[in-house]
Write a structure and sequence with these properties.
By secondary structure, the chain is of the alpha+beta class. Helices cover about 55% and strands about 20% of the residues. The chain is built from four helices and two strands; from the N terminus they run H-E-H-H-E-H. It has a two-stranded parallel ribbon. The longest helix is centred in the last third of the chain and has 13 residues. It is flat, with a radius of gyration of 14 Å.
Length: about 80
């Protein structure tokens, strides 16, 4: 299932989407958010059964397929 189809299905499950736009290999605030909040047990408990988590990564050094880059750009433009 594509991310777009997943987003369309969310109202059916009464869930919300949490999109993290990140630069995982270069952005200090992004790294801090990930390590202090997004990896915490409290956050996991909060989002459980309520949210679909989506990470849109825009790295500078990490390799990504052209397809993933295009999908991330399209979602970034839309949201």
């Amino acid at each position: 299932m594509t991310i777009q189809n997943s987003i369309l299905a969310l109202p059916f499950f009464n869930w919300l989407i949490f999109m993290e736009f990140t630069g995982s290999d270069w952005c200090p605030p992004c790294k801090k958010l990930h390590s202090t909040v997004l990896e915490s047990e409290a956050f996991a408990d909060f989002v459980k059964d309520k949210y679909v988590l989506v990470e849109l990564d825009f790295p500078r050094r990490k390799e990504q397929s052209d397809e993933l880059k295009a999908a991330n750009r399209a979602l970034a433009e839309e949201y």
